[in-house]
Amino acid sequence: MYIKVKFLKNGEPHGREYTYKATFPVEVGQEVILLGGGNGVVAEINVPEGSVAAFADKVKEIEDVVKESKQ
Question: Which whole-number Å values give the CA distances from 46 to 1, 11, 38, 62, 71, in the listed order?
Fold first, then answer.
């Protein structure tokens, strides 16, 4: 499934949304671990495949869901 993720800056979602693949269930609002060590927040799930067809071969997968909140 394709999802949209916003990067975290100082613990808050910041900037534009980026498209990633999720090979396991995620929900909007969950914090996820991105390749390369960064974290982000899921902004949208079930992004239509047609909207990413032009760059689908370049979309990276998320690594995992953050298990515990740091709050």
Answer: 6, 25, 22, 14, 28
